[in-house]
């Protein structure tokens, strides 16, 4: 046997040993369940646009109906989706301006595209009613009935001057740690 054949023989034996070791490791990984991952969906709702809010709640209620534990984290403009009204009492001028300019609830949200100063959103709501499509307010109520966890971002709420009594009943207040805690255990994480 030449020196070159001996080197090739050693490399082949070494490679076969490595392949066997890798096969053992892959088999062990395939047998072990994913650790700490649960049947959960965690979602950030950043947008206050009607079409995006509809998509968020359709996904959330669908996932909850399929047995997933769902949490929605409303931050910045997404807080508009879970506002139930406006209040100006006790706010400074900037907070009053934000309160006046931000939509307050499903009936006041605009479309992200083709809104045309509210005409697009009004047309969308009309078409939804004519086709018996569930409204955003009904989807929110359905999500609450299905036990979807809805968390309002405390920092965004304070920055925008939104008070607790302007938010839907039953919402939790929380920070990024609340969302990260939900997301780290979830199979699915979405940003809308």
UniProtKB/TrEMBL annotation:
Pfam families associated with the record: DrsE_2
Protein keywords: Coiled coil, Membrane, Transmembrane, Transmembrane helix
Stored Gene3D superfamilies: DsrEFH-like
Coiled-coil residue windows: 5-32
TM region(s), chain numbering: 53-79
Protein name: Peroxiredoxin family protein
Taxonomic source organism: Ardenticatena maritima
């Amino acid at each position: 046997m030449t020196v070159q054949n001996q080197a090739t023989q050693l490399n082949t034996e070494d490679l076969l040993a490595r392949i066997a070791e890798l096969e053992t490791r892959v088999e062990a990984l395939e047998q072990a369940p994913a650790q700490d991952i649960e049947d959960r969906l965690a979602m950030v709702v950043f947008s206050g646009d009607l079409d995006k809010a509809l998509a968020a709640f359709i996904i959330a209620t669908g996932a909850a109906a399929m047995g997933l534990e769902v949490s929605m984290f409303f931050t910045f403009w997404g807080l508009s989706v879970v506002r139930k009204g406006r209040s100006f009492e006790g706010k400074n001028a900037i907070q009053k301006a934000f309160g006046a300019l931000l939509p307050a609830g499903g009936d006041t949200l605009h479309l992200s595209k083709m809104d045309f100063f509210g005409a697009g959103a009004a047309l969308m709501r009309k078409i939804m009613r004519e086709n018996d499509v569930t409204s955003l307010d009904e989807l929110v109520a359905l999500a609450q009935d299905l036990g979807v966890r809805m968390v309002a971002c405390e920092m965004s709420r304070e920055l925008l001057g939104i008070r607790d009594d302007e938010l839907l009943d039953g919402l939790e207040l929380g920070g990024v740690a609340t969302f990260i805690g939900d997301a780290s255990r979830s199979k699915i994480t979405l940003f809308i």
